[in-house]
Amino acid sequence: MGIRLFTSESVTEGHPDKLCDCVSDAILDALLAQDCNARCACEVTASPGELHIMGEITTTATVDYEAIARNTVREIGYDRDEYGFNADTITVRVAIHEQSPDIAQGVDHSMEEKSGGSQMLGAGDQGIMFGYACNETPERMPLPISLAHALTRKLTEVRVTGVLPYLRPDGKSQVTVEYDEELNPVRIHTVVVSAQHDPDIDFAQMKMDIISKVICEVVPSHLLDKDTIFYINPTGRFVLGGPAADTGLTGRKIIVDTYGGYARHGGGAFSGKDPTKLDRSGAYIARYLAKNVVAAGLADRCEIQLSYAIGVAEPISLLVDTFGTGVTDDERIAEMLLRIADLTPLGIIESLSLKEPCYRSLAAYGHFGQFRNQCKWESENIAQTLLHYLMPNHA
């Protein structure tokens, strides 16, 4: 098969789409802080000088949507007119309405019932969700997206701390990894970093700064060699950025949020959605299951697909694919996962503590992997149980 190149990208929180994700999740956190049963499907769009908050919210909480939006934009770093988008001077428009009663009925009063007659929480919509894990990195994420996130996070860090004070909030990274015939990562082929900056900077100096203070700080040196290609701001100039340059929208970076294209995606975005929306919670539990399969040593790579029907609590299907790396049949793994994990919406919410206001911190730099160890879906606490039942001689 020869060498194979795979590329993933990440964006900073100042990217216009990510800014919108951050505002949506900041609103969700504010709602959950007062009302843990709040129903929220909040989308934000940003354009030069304007930010619009839209969606369906049903809650007992009282929050100031405009203030949350302005504070979030300010925290990200858009706090001056010269950036073309200023938290204090933009126009913020709010268009919120309540959740459809037809959907609420399906969620609140599922057709399924627990033993004893108490009703279960039904799925908030039909849909499919995927989770993935592999042994390429300690956090069991594909190497390209892991490094891409590390780069954008570092890009933000050196801006905020003043190490590179001429940087502005918008930025992107892209990492191309070379794999051998056994699909083991062997080297970094190309790194691309596009960083918004002040006008009238020394471009050659900025390129050296980003290579030395960003790339070489986060990419393991043994993966870089004399043939690694670096593209720093390939157009040569990136002064106008963020919503002043491109319209942003919640939910438009779903591949950045997950596995960088390395695994399949069900199509549903995460940000601004409360955990009864299985686009979000289903993807989190699918990651949890896949990671525990790999942690148990049952496979080197594992992808989980879940599917749900609106108003129905139990998943319609669960598919395990270990891509030929499994030490036992994929069907056996799927059967065991269904036995030991509660995959109803309520079960997922309770097991992963998804009613807690934690979402703003997830809105940028990926929802899985290296920087999410505090999240319960990154736990490997059922790995030994899986190993015990499926491979008792190896437990």
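The record above closes out task 2.4. Task 2.5 opens with a second protein, given below.
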Amino acid sequence: MIDLYTDTFFMREALKEAQKAYDLGEVPVGAVIECNHLIIARAHNLTEQLTDVTAHAEMQAFTAASNYLGNKYLENCTLYVTLEPCIMCAGAAYWTQISKIVFGAFDEKRGFTKTHSGILHPKTKLEKGIMENECAIILKEFFSKKR
């Protein structure tokens, strides 16, 4: 039997969100939140569109998932995000008590794992580098066109 609900499957869905951000001229970061194999939230960066520095893909996804579940806690949920969360998003993840975070590309400058790896809730599991190359390519392309 083939398991369709793998980390790769959900990261591909997050990459679709990153492409939406790219098309809008936003930094191409996408996120999805899954719960029991169902995507309950899809989001991408909206900082330029909303003129809001906190409108990261993860923050948008946390809000959408909480609204869907009618609960501020995201237990039994997994966040898939194409870029390593910043400290703000990792801090927000702590408060949601999300069960797992899976990210693609590492953020060497602003990612939380370099200096704040203990910021996640003790219940939260972390998977790093899923589809890392694919997630990095869209970011590199975006920034090469900006320069």
